[in-house]
Amino acid sequence: MTNEKNYADVKTNKGKDWFYTDIVKEHFFNPKNLFKTKEEADNYDADGMGMVGSPACGDMMKLWIKVDSKTEQIKECKWQTFGCASAIASTSMLSVMVTENGGMKVDDAMSIKPQDIVKRLHDLPPRKFHCSVLGDKALREAINNFFEKSGQKDRVIRQGAKVIDKILNITDKDIEEAVLEGATNFESLQKKTKIGVQDKSCIPEAEQLLRFYREKYFGAD
Fold first, then answer.
1. Share of the chain above pLDDT 90, in %
2. Which one of 5, 31, 49, 170 has the fewest CB atoms closer than 10 angstroms to its CB?
3. Sign of the CA dihedral 59, 4, 19, 119?
4. In this predicted model, what pLDDT tens digit does every residue of 31-70 receive, in sequence order?
5. Lowest mean pLDDT among 8-22, 48-62, 73-87, 111-125
6. CB contact at 8 A, 113 and 136
7. What 3-state class would DSSP assign to 177?
8. How many beta carbons lie within 10 A of that of residue 219, not counting itself?
9. CB 18 within 8 A of CB 112
10. Phi/psi of residue 79, nearest 5 degrees
């Protein structure tokens, strides 16, 4: 599910901002736990499946897990994606992280953050950091699906979206995505989302969320 441009960019380290570490290249050229065919995925007896994104938008991730019913450790983690090199490498690494050393417990896996994956990859280009979000979001959906299928609906954790700009219907999730795509201050956030252009009253809350997501994903400035 890759394309020639992905291979060219990774192979040539196109541009300084596009430098990929050797670990990223290893997981891109030799992805771990990847379903290579539709038949493999269709015939897989998973305990949980999660999907985020949309092929129509360019990035889509499906992820399947098998969980030990007694220990709740993730024994297998398989995935497919329509995504860029960074998304492929990030999810490949994620699948290793949750299955190594006997498997990570589902509660611990729920707490994995994109920066945990990026750290194991020895960094990603800043403008590609948001690609590491696909895998961990799909993993949380797969774990929630496991909880539902195993009769543990009280353990399902959902993250809803709150409307911040009521005129343009811009949510906190839109702000989160903008930060992951490179927004570092309110000016760049507004350029990406148009938040606060008409609804000036939402600007203080938008700025607060901007700082929150910046610290969450990139640490304190």
1. 59
2. 5
3. positive
4. 999 999 999 999 999 999 999 876 554 568 999 999 999 9
5. 8-22
6. yes
7. helix
8. 8
9. no
10. -160, 160
By annotation, the residues acting in catalysis are: 57, 131
Neighbours of 40 (CB within 10 A): 12
In the chain, the amino acid numbered 212 is F
What DSSP assignment string belongs to the chain? ---HHHHHHHHHT-SGGG---HHHHHHHHS-SSB--SHHHHHT---SEEEEEE-GGGS-EEEEEEEE-TTT-BEEEEEEEEE--HHHHHHHHHHHHHHHGGG--BHHHHTT--HHHHHHHTT---GGGGGGHHHHHHHHHHHHHHHHHHTT-GGG-------EEETTTTEEHHHHHHHHHTT--SHHHHHHHH-TTSS-GGGHHHHHHHHHHHHHHHH---
According to DSSP, the residues that pair with 74 across neighbouring strands are 67
The secondary structure of residue 24, as a DSSP letter, is H
